[in-house]
Amino acid sequence: MAIMALQAGKHVYVEKPCSHNPHENELLVAAQRKYKKIVQMGNQQRSAQSSALAVKEIKEGIIGNVYKGEAYYSANRGSIGTGKLVDVPKTLNWDLWQGPAPREAFRDNVHPYNWHWFKSWGTGEIHNNGTHEIDICRWALGVDLPNKVTSFGGKYTFDDDWQFPDNQEVTYQYDDKLITWTGHSRGKIQPSQPGRGASIYGSKGVITLSRNNYKLFGLDGELIKTVDEKVKSETTNTVGGGGLDVTHIANFFNAIRLGGETKCSYRRCKYKHHDVPFG
Fold this sequence. Notes:
The chain contains eight helices and ten strands. Strands 4-5-6-3-7-8-9-10 form an eight-stranded mixed β-sheet, covered by helices on one side. A two-stranded parallel sheet has the order 1-2. The chain has helices spanning 2-7, 22-35, 49-59, 94-97, 124-128, 130-141, 243-258, 266-275, and strands at residues 12-14, 39-41, 66-74, 148-154, 167-173, 178-184, 196-202, 205-209, 213-218, 223-228. It is an alpha+beta fold.
């Protein structure tokens, strides 16, 4: 749909997951270059002032030589059950909604949110929420494509239609750095952590990044400073609204009206969607 919109001469704000595989990423990048329109990815934390400040200070050496990013998502999603064939809602164009995917009959446990857990349309938690935090780690570490990816996990909690791991660990290895992803879709991480976030480790300290703040710690674990966002954002509910949505979309509109680069142009951020499917 993003490519069709570009072909129609429209600027595009494309939500994640914007692809199932790296080839689809390249098709969208090629279309953006051909039609010369603005394409903004819906990864709101790229517009967080606190995260941008942290990345700037990391590059200036505030925590020394950075070597590892830890990304995680912690939730307690319930069972999606076993879907039953039902009539398509009058408000939904089921054929259009399925896009290029193989056609399937409508079931009562797919729309509007649980499509994330079906392989025909979704990409599982790692490409649903992991794509946000893994991108923040890549941004902070200054890396692109990994040399090696290791992934393990499984579906452990419910006997239902969910088709992806509900608990997963992934490691992305680069020349001298690594990123890890811990995804707990069903059963929260213990000891307790915020619902989502990223930690960046350096030779002189550690920085934690969320949609709402940036915290700097010494190697001894003592908090040195906190930088808060001016407006709070939700983190783990399925709506996820908040200040960063407004800021990120405003950046998209300003790029159209005034020119210049978006906070996450598709060309700049495409590697994050190259990395994630490998997990």
